[in-house]
């Protein structure tokens, strides 16, 4: 299903781990070069600024294709068909650049993927006159396929947000619409827990899983914060208990993420909690009851961030058996074994003849 070469993806992960080991002076330059030679990667990749330039240039070319087709057709009410046709051409170009030119995160493949998703959704909406709920389902299905096929983080975010939008649209038409923020928050946390427990997924999906988990955590807090800030005050007074629950969750979620992340040595939980501290401070500063305490709230938020940053620095190196974060990546363990084999080549085939026999002790033979 994946468009990219899976062997090269595995080798790329190994080289990244080997490079980290080199920076930590766990291996020498010669050993790193040996690993690099034995695990070749044929992808064509670029740096940040060339990638950004090609990304913008590819978007320009995509829109030029749309404009050119509209000019050739001399007809103004065929936007849907033109968008779908251009999207198909972009998908064909994306497959060509990946399969023949071996592009990997060069900006070209990213832009082609994003433009194809946008044009497909716009074309389907114009041709089939989709409703709001149908549009949400369309975005979800298209983004999901592109995420699985092209390992694109933006399409992964679009998949999650469109799924939440579908749930939101469905809940708004039910008697449960009063509890929509709490339900969406619960669903987001369930998504995070589900992806956290997935342990046998291919390693090349781990980056996408991390992105989805971060977005799920931020969304779970963001939907509560949005309800607190922008909901009608009359709604808050008529649902005082619900308002208090949202306010408590707004405070407890970031603290819970930080404490749980530190306890489980989980980077995603810990750093998401840091980001959400700022959002929590903004929520309290926006509430009329806490306006006079805005400066103190800001100082408390900054103090919390500096305290968490200090913990990261303090436990960067093991201290009394405690470390800041533990590696949960099974592929990373495999990479470390590869690095160890390259570092100590003499233990690849350990001797088995000991004890005076061919295999065993006390002079016994292997067939004994």
Brief summary:
With 368 residues, the protein is an all-alpha fold.
What are the main properties of this structure?
368 residues, mainly alpha, 14 helices
Structure description:
- The chain is mainly α and 368 residues long.
- It is built from 14 helices and no strands.
- The chain has helices at 6-23, 29-38, 48-73, 79-99, 108-128, 132-150, 153-172, 180-197, 206-230, 233-238, 240-264, 267-286, 294-314, 330-343.
- The longest helix has 26 residues, at 48-73.
- The protein is flat and about 60 Å long.
- 26% of the residues are buried.
- Residues 326-332 have low confidence and may be disordered.
Cα Rg: 26 Å
Low-confidence parts:
326-332
The helix/strand order is: HHHHHHHHHHHHHH
Basic shape = flat
Q: What is the averaged pLDDT score?
A: 81
Give the oligomer, counting copies of the same chain as homo and different chains as hetero: single chain
Enumerate how many helices there are, as a single number: 14
Going by helix content, strand content and strand pairing, the class is mainly alpha
Approximate helicity band:
over 70%
Biggest β-sheet description: none
**Total strand count, please?**
0
Distance between the termini: 49 Å
Strand content: under 5%
């Amino acid at each position: 299903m994946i468009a990219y070469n899976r062997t090269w993806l595995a080798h790329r992960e190994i080289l990244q781990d080997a490079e980290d080991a080199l920076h930590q002076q766990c291996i020498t330059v010669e050993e790193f070069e040996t690993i690099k030679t034995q695990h070749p990667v044929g992808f064509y990749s670029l740096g940040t600024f060339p990638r950004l330039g090609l990304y913008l240039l590819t978007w320009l070319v995509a829109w030029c294709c749309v404009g050119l087709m509209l000019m050739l057709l001399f007809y103004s009410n065929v936007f849907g068909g033109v968008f779908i046709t251009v999207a198909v051409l972009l998908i064909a170009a994306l497959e060509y650049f990946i399969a023949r030119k071996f592009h990997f995160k060069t900006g070209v493949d990213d832009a082609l993927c994003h433009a194809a998703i946008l044009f497909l959704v716009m074309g389907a909406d114009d041709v089939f006159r989709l409703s709001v709920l149908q549009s949400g389902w369309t975005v979800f299905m298209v983004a999901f396929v592109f995420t699985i096929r092209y390992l694109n983080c933006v399409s992964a975010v679009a998949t999650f947000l469109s799924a939440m939008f579908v749930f939101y649209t469905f809940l708004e038409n039910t008697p449960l619409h009063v509890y929509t923020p709490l339900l969406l928050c619960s669903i987001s946390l369930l998504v995070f827990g589900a992806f956290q427990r997935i342990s046998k997924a291919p390693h090349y999906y781990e980056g996408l899983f991390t992105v989805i988990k971060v977005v799920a955590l931020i969304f779970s807090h963001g939907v509560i914060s949005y309800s607190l800030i922008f909901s009608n005050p009359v709604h808050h007074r008529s649902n005082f208990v619900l308002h208090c629950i949202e306010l408590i969750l707004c405070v407890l979620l970031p603290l819970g993420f930080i404490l749980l992340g530190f306890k489980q040595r989980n980077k995603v939980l810990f750093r998401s909690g840091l980001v959400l501290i700022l959002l929590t401070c903004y929520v309290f500063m926006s509430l009329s009851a806490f306006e006079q305490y805005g400066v103190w709230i800001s100082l408390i938020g900054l103090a919390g961030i500096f305290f968490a940053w200090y913990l990261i620095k303090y436990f960067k190196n093991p201290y009394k058996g405690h470390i800041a974060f533990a590696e949960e990546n099974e592929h990373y363990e495999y990479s470390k074994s590869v690095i160890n084999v390259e570092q100590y080549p003499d233990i690849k085939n350990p001797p088995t003849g000991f004890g005076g026999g061919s295999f065993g002790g006390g002079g016994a033979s292997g067939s004994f």
